[in-house]
Amino acid sequence: MIDTHCHLNKEDYDDVNKVIENMKDNIMIVSTASPNDLKEVIDLIETHKNIYATIGIHPEFADTYTEDDLKQVEKYLNHPKVVGIGEIGLDYHYTKENKEKQEELFRKQIILANKYKKTIVIHTRDAMLDTYNILKENKNKNIKCNFHCYSGSLEMAKEIIKLNGTFGIGGVLTFKNEKKLKEIVKELDLKYFLLETDSPYLTPEPFRGQKNEPKNIEYVAKKIAEIKKISYKKVIEATTENAIYQFDMKNSL
Ligand SMILES: [Zn+2]
To answer: What are the structural domain ranges in the chain?
Structure first.
């Protein structure tokens, strides 16, 4: 299994080594959010064979990041285990007032993805249309993108597929009241889905409310199997293959 999007900051877990140990036969792609995460994430990928990374600056830091932070991201994009740029995008949930700054940071990082031919991992919250438009205007056609923890509509999902896009599916799918995402999983081909946990957040049922960790990805896979009426094994095989393609990992496994 590949957890295509998680955070493994030491400070978030009682024992991060145990969390990593629990995924020892599987792969994790750890994402940075804050520029301060970069060093810790690079350490992780250099000390663990089964951990890879996507690096980038989350829109939450649009007001506070420095040019040097961006230079650091660019520097590590050449690292053989950095498989994408992310999570980047727009977040209007807490504030829209710095919209221009968020857009500028997003655009600059899309340009880096084009330059280094890296997959883009998108974070978008309450900003789907702007995110889509900026991506469409700035991303080179052949660059792949993944909407992590997808929460948009089925119609938008179909447009995103035309942009060479896929969808990260996590714990939200298992929530009892979640209908829209279940519909999307049912309607679209399995090839467009990646498994993710977004640990330590968004813990799937039956552990909702507790801290999430990558090993819980199996509950997301089980839910997809149930919705699509296919075997769990098939879901694991297909989503693993999807992830390897999405992040061009074939030669580095
Ligand atoms: Zn995340």
So the answer is: 2-252
Q: Ligand 1 center to residue 217 CA distance, Å?
A: 14
- Asked whether the whole model's pTM tops 0.90, one would answer yes
Query: Which residue ranges of the chain lie beneath pLDDT 70?
Result: none
Please, which residues have CB within 8 angstroms of residue 55's CB and are 6 or more apart in sequence?
31, 32, 38, 41, 73, 76, 77, 82, 85, 86
Q: Find the length of the chain.
A: 253
Q: Which fold has domain 2-252?
A: TIM Barrel (3.20.20)
**C-alpha 96 – ligand 1 centre gap (Å):** 20
b/e 52-85 (16+ beta carbons within 10 angstroms → b): bbbbbbbbbbbeebeeebbebbbebbeeebbbbb
